[in-house]
Amino acid sequence: MFTFAHAVTWLIVGLIGGSLAGILVKRRRAGFGRLANIALGCVGAVVGGALFTAFKLFPGLDAVVISLRDVVAAFIGSLVVLAARWLWNARSGS
Q: Cα–Cα distance between 40 and 18 in angstroms, integer?
């Protein structure tokens, strides 16, 4: 069951994971900007959570806690999303 606590946790973990990925990729402190970092991190949290669940790396990622493993999953998921976006743009020629 998706609750308000889940949404708040995803926003916080998404902000941290997306900001770290933005800093790494853009090499500046602001990353892509606050809203873009949150969006990237939330999508990255979903992608990272799905990948880590599929490979059974971090059990219990669906718990409503903010931990290092959640941030790592969001960070890696954000990097996967950025890599997919880069590949999409490279293939389409834009």
A: 5
